[in-house]
């Protein structure tokens, strides 16, 4: 009988994979040919045993032969709850090869953000932002990829990859156009649900046509494979039965033929009847029977390896199985010889003490499922101790802790709480949630249960507001939360209600807690929170006379602590939106600062008060013409969130409000850039949230003042800038901005109706500031031809409110409106007065518009020239065109564009 050597058997799973191998060769060649070329993503889809792993091994061989660096990782069925498992497998070998200081220098600002998730740096205090960590991981791989060109990344069993790594992979796939790197992902179809499925779908979309679905082997291929391994004389009937028994599954075919060789079974028609029972012995129950024939010790060792699942060392498996060192080494060798365990992938992270892997995930699953339920649970408990004793921490042990018996173990509850804290510190809130939910099922003793529910509510705050509400309400209904923690729980509950669009309930929740507290710092803090939510409520006031009560309480505050400073900020913001005297607004805000800076405990990343309060402070300065102070605060926010790795809603809001400040100052190009970045970030967090409205409203407003009306309309349509409006206020007023947009596109009736609604909503809230809610001046202009009497009345009212507020911008804008409704010398005088006020204002766009309007009315070439220069510096294209046309009409020489200036 002619035998074929092992080389043929090893390459057997590549039968009928010529097209796939050719695509891999082409991708590797393209990668190596041009360092400036964009990256490429290949996805291999196929059922278990269809040769995905063999194709990845072939990719490694091809890539290494061309001099590529190859990094690989593999998901595991029992490891899906281990956050960052796969991304750590990919990156740790390269990073651990560096000296710690080299790694820090290599990753730069991202070291403290991505380092803890990668296991190469200690986490900081508090919760890491998951989106920031994901962005940090993308940046880390990007930098490493550029340094290790040409680089190939291989990810096997992506259907079992942990959610955090999948999130990174989906984000990284979006950046492949910028990187010379080849990524090859292998996965089974289906098997994934929820967010993980969404991330995998995004990876598939990024791959586009480079998604290959593998099929079973044809009868001809199985016959060729059979004859290649058992000899050319293998009979056709035998070959057909091999195909029938295995359904053309490449892995099962190879395993069955290996059993045929081991049994020295002749490849003849008379032997074909033995193939089916032989195939059963290669998988499922048959595999377990075969395992048991190797002996009790070998069986226990295999079970221990299946429980550990990853980084399987002989020493740890021996301890879990209760074996001595020599017995364990012998068992590992037996299992290798039986094709159950093998040496790990040569490109994987080196494991200590003889790392092992299962030959195929199907074998690992069969062994794991063969362990009796009670024994499996007990072994997970021991495994948790083994992992902890190895110095890997409770977070690493938590996947085992999740599986142990529920028996009211107080120590287990504390271990799960600590594991949750470790998960939160590296940006894995879902893993923390699983630990805390398991702790509740233990269950904890009554007074600890409240704290676990509180911690669970904090863990889900960013991802599931509705769940947070449920957990925190339960926590507050129990004994165990006292003092500062209870106050914090009430605050976080109100935050969750706010984010879940339950504004009135948020206010009532805080109000009820205030009523039960005695006078003191805790009560004062919650009073400030109550006023804060009332201040951002876009509907009618939830508490009558709230502004009066806030003013009275703030009058007693000296700014001696955070609660008093918060009340002063809230008083300033409320007075600003109501259009009270701007100097008093600024005085109240200034008293909340310490030497002109934010006080300790009120920083942008401090969690006690949240982002809303400080955005109210900065906005108050922005709308009272103290744009220098607003700019400092907006830029501080951007730097703080970027350096802390907060890439989610906080950074989106920071960009939105920075854009608002730039728009107010008249730096329209920069404002548009910042607002587009805000919208991009807000899209990742989710549409419909207040931060999303802030981004879209300010972007539409900025495009309108630039004169890009068609683009503003397109953005509004694309991103849903339409009613219903959010329950929290947005600056500037979205109804007023949309009304102006409708007027600009020629939908005059709709625009007038929208502005009328803006006026009614503003009146209900008492928001009378004509700069924040500019409906009066916009409606006056719109009604000038149709109803001049009402238009004049609106303009008069706008001027009265502007003079009450008292800023140069407010008064100048009201005068601009009045001038637009007049004719002759009265119009000229009003326009001249508008210029005088706006010349002193920091708002350069409004100043430019006033100059140009005055120049047109007075037929002054010099005024038009000054206005044109201002309009150009602002990036106000429509205003620039208006000034140039006016100059041309006056016979002035044509003034060309500033060299190098282009329109967006």
Automatic annotation (TrEMBL):
UniProt cross-references to Gene3D superfamilies, sorted A to Z: Tetratricopeptide repeat domain
GO MF: adenylate cyclase activity; ATP binding
Keywords in alphabetical order: ATP-binding, Nucleotide-binding
Residues annotated as transmembrane: none
GO cellular component: cytoplasm
Domain Orc1-like AAA ATPase: 15-184
InterPro entries assigned to the protein according to its UniProt record, in alphabetical order: AAA_16, P-loop_NTPase, TPR-like_helical_dom_sf, TPR_rpt
Top-rank taxon, per record: Bacteria
UniProt keyword DNA-binding, yes or no: no
Designated name of the protein: Orc1-like AAA ATPase domain-containing protein
């Amino acid at each position: 009988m002619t035998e074929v050597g092992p080389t043929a058997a090893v390459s057997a799973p590549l039968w009928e994979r010529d097209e796939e191998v050719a695509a891999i060769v082409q991708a590797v060649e393209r990668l190596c040919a041009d360092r400036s070329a964009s990256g490429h993503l290949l996805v291999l889809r196929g059922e278990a045993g269809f040769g995905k792993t063999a194709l990845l091994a072939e990719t490694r061989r091809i890539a290494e032969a061309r001099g590529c660096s190859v990094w690989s990782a593999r998901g595991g069925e029992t490891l899906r709850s281990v956050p960052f498992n796969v991304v750590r497998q990919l990156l740790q070998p390269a990073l651990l090869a560096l000296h710690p200081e080299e790694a820090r220098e290599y990753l730069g600002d991202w070291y403290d953000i991505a380092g803890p998730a990668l296991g190469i740096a200690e986490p900081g205090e508090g919760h890491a932002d998951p989106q920031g960590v994901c962005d940090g991981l993308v940046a880390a791989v990007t930098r490493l990829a550029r340094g290790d060109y040409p680089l190939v990344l291989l990810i096997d069993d992506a259907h079992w990859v942990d959610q955090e790594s999948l999130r990174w992979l989906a984000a990284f796939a979006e950046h492949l156009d910028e990187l010379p790197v080849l990524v090859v992902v292998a996965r089974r179809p289906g098997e994934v649900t929820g967010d993980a499925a969404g991330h995998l779908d995004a990876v598939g979309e990024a791959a586009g046509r480079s998604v290959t679905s593998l099929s079973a082997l044809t009868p001809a291929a199985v016959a060729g494979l059979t004859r290649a391994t058992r000899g050319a004389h293998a009979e056709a009937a035998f070959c057909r039965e091999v195909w029938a028994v295995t359904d053309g599954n490449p892995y099962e075919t190879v395993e069955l033929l290996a059993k045929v060789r081991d049994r020295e079974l002749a490849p003849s028609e008379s032997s074909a009847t033995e193939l089916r029972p032989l195939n059963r012995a290669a998988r499922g129950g048959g595999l377990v029977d075969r395992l048991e024939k190797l002996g009790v010790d070998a069986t226990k060792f295999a079970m221990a390896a299946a429980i550990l699942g990853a980084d399987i060392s002989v020493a740890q498996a021996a301890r879990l199985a209760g074996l001595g060192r020599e017995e364990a080494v012998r068992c590992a060798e037996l299992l290798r010889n039986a094709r159950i365990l093998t040496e790990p992938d040569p490109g994987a992270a080196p494991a200590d003490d003889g790392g092992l892997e299962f030959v195929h995930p199907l074998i690992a699953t069969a062994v794991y499922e063969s362990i009796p339920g009670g024994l499996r649970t007990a072994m997970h408990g021991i495994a948790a101790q083994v992992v902890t004793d190895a110095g890997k921490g409770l977070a690493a042990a938590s996947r085992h802790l999740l599986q142990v018996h529920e028996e009211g173990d107080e120590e287990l509850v504390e271990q799960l709480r600590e594991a949750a804290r470790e998960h939160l510190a590296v940006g894995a809130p879902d893993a923390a949630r699983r630990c805390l939910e398991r702790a509740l099922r233990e269950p904890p003793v009554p007074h600890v249960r409240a704290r676990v529910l509180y911690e669970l509510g904090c863990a889900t705050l960013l991802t599931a507001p509705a769940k947070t509400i449920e957990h925190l309400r339960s926590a507050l209904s129990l004994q165990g939360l006292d003092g500062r923690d209870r106050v914090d729980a009430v605050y976080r509950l109100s935050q969750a209600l706010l984010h879940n669009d339950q504004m009135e309930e948020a206010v009532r929740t805080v109000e009820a807690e205030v009523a039960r507290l005695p006078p003191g710092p805790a009560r004062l803090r919650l009073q400030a929170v109550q006023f804060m939510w009332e201040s951002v409520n876009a509907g009618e006031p939830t508490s009558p006379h709230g502004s009066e009560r806030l003013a009275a309480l703030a009058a007693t505050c000296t700014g001696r602590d955070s609660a008093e400073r918060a009340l002063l900020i809230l008083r300033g913001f409320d007075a600003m939106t109501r259009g009270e005297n701007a100097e008093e607004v600024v005085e109240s805000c200034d008293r909340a600062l310490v030497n002109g800076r934010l006080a300790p405990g009120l920083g942008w990343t401090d969690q006690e008060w949240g982002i809303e309060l400080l955005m109210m402070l900065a906005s108050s300065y922005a709308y009272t013409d103290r744009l220098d102070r607003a700019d400092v605060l907006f830029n501080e926010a951007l730097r703080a969130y970027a350096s802390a790795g907060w890439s989610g809603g906080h950074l989106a809001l920071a960009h939105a409000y920075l854009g608002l400040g730039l728009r107010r100052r008249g730096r329209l190009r920069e404002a548009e850039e910042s607002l587009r970045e805000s919208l991009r970030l807000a899209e990742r967090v989710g549409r419909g949230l207040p931060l999303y409205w802030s981004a879209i409203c300010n972007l539409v407003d900025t495009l309108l003042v630039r004169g890009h009306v068609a683009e503003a309309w397109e953005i509004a349509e694309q991103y849903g800038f339409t009613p219903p409006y959010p329950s929290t206020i947005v600056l500037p007023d979205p109804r007023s901005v949309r009304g102006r947009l409708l007027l600009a596109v020629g939908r005059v009736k709709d625009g007038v109706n929208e502005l009328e609604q803006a006026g009614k909503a503003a009146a209900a809230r008492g928001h009378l500031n004509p700069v924040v809610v500019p409906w009066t001046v916009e409606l006056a202009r719109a009604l000038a031809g149709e109803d001049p009497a009402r238009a004049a009345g609106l303009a008069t009212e706008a001027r009265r409110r502007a003079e009450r507020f008292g800023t140069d911008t407010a008064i100048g804008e009201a005068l601009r409106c009045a001038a637009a409704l007049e004719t002759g010398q009265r119009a000229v005088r009003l326009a001249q007065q508008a210029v005088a006020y706006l010349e002193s204002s920091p708002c350069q766009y409004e100043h430019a518009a006033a100059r140009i309007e005055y120049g047109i009315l007075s037929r002054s070439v010099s005024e038009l020239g000054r206005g044109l220069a201002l309009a150009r510096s602002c990036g106000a294209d429509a205003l620039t065109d208006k000034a140039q046309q006016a100059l041309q009409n006056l016979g002035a020489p044509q003034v060309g564009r500033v060299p190098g200036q282009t329109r967006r």
